[in-house]
Specification:
Strand order of the largest sheet: 6-9-8-7-10-11
CATH architecture of the largest domain: 2-Layer Sandwich
Helix content: 25-40%
Strand content: 25-35%
Number of helices: 6
Shape: globular
């Protein structure tokens, strides 16, 4: 039998089919989150993913977009007879201990990232997720999520600058070897590339100084590969860590998710 798991983000939503014997991903798709409001879009996209409607009665998602979660929940129940559960719901074992002041304020995608790195790497980790926001999350080797940092996302910052500054064109971020740009595009590439490189390096060093610990650095999300040569610490790119965390939570909760 197969089950559905997924991650509903502000920009993109990833939905996967997993095998319930191996708990491996069989197939996955990405959806534009803003289009989830369209039933025809949902039907078209999910029909490419789910050929057999014999899916497990429970689906598990992380979500930072409540309205989209509600719409997707109704759609899955009606079309595939599976009930969408969200990993922050009460009585769901989060696998990691959440050590922050208000547990309701931590995004479920960040909980999934913490579970994913704890399960996979078994050491002190900082997981950096390049999403709509750029987030840093600190996870200890004994499975405690100790909080993190939220910074503006790369694409969101580019879009905002291009929208509100009349003389700034739309552009895509790429590595800029020289710091001093000779035209507007080079200057923008330099500002964003070296600016985010400095932000990443500085925050990692600040975390290690504050905690007096060294960490394995895990990058995930859209820009995870871009900063390979500008980060002072070695790091691992792991673009499936969020889904792997959701799958681990699913495994630990199967007996009482229904």
């Amino acid at each position: 039998m197969i089950a559905i798991v997924g991650d509903i983000g502000n920009t993109l939503t990833k939905i996967c089919l997993i095998n319930l014997k191996s708990f491996k991903v069989q197939k996955s798709i990405y959806l534009d989150t803003s289009k989830i409001y369209s039933k025809s879009y949902l039907k078209k996209k999910l029909n490419t993913l789910i050929k057999n409607k014999n899916v497990y009665t429970i689906s598990l998602f992380s979500s930072v977009v409540p309205k989209c979660k509600i719409l997707l929940k109704k759609f899955l129940k009606k079309n595939y007879r599976t009930k969408l559960r969200e990993i922050k719901e009460k009585n769901i074992n989060k696998v990691v201990k959440i050590n922050i002041k208000n547990k309701n304020q931590v995004g479920s995608d960040r909980i999934a990232n913490a579970v994913g790195v704890f399960k996979k790497y078994k050491c002190n980790c900082i997981v950096l997720d390049f999403g709509t926001a750029t987030t840093f999350d600190v996870v200890t080797k004994n499975g405690t999520y100790n909080g993190g940092i939220i910074a503006p996302g790369v694409n969101l910052s580019i879009k905002t600058l291009s929208t509100y500054a009349d003389q700034i064109p739309h552009f895509s971020l790429k590595k800029q070897n020289k710091v001093i740009g000779k035209n507007t595009i080079e200057a923008l590439h330099s500002g964003f590339y070296w600016g985010y490189s400095g932000l990443i390096n500085n925050i990692i060093l600040k975390i290690e100084k504050e905690t007096q610990k060294k960490y394995k650095i895990i990058f995930t999300g859209g820009y995870a590969d871009l900063f390979k040569t500008s980060i002072i610490r070695s790091f691992v790119v792991d673009k499936n860590i969020t889904i792997e965390g959701i799958i681990e939570i699913f495994k630990k909760n199967m007996d009482y998710l229904i």
